[in-house]
Design brief:
Ribosomal Protein L22, Chain A, two-stranded antiparallel ribbon, alpha+beta
Amino acid sequence: MGDVQLSLSCKRAHIGVKPTDLVFAENKYGKPILINPLVKDLDFSISHSGDYVIVALNQGGKIGVDIEWDELRPSSFARRFFSQAELCSHENNHLSAQGMNMNLTRLWSRKEAVAKFLSLGSSLDFRLLDTSDDILTIDHLVTDLSIRLISNKCDGYWISLALEN
């Protein structure tokens, strides 16, 4: 894949603060957060897999991002982390082994993006999330919330983004 370079630049016109003035902390679940009083309503999410790192920024709303290498996952993985609806859909799709694995990786990437969006990390029971549709409505974890999910495959990696709908 070659060398990957990550360059983070914050332009004053966009957030009004130099990158060296950004102050970070972690929430109680370990998610990095910005705590600058000068930076209002800027959320970010970071993920890495293999040689890739992805950073997503959202001004005025929450965001979650994940990147996953499309690797072979055992069937026990699906039973441990996937909702009943996802398992039924997965088993009824009649996909090839490669297609089934690609679907598992896509769904897993979406779940990770949602967990980051909700700032709950691994404390979230992923079986409660059905990420098979592009709109996820959550009414059992927090007040009613609708999350838009976007996923794309690039160079063997699934990249998923979770945004408030």
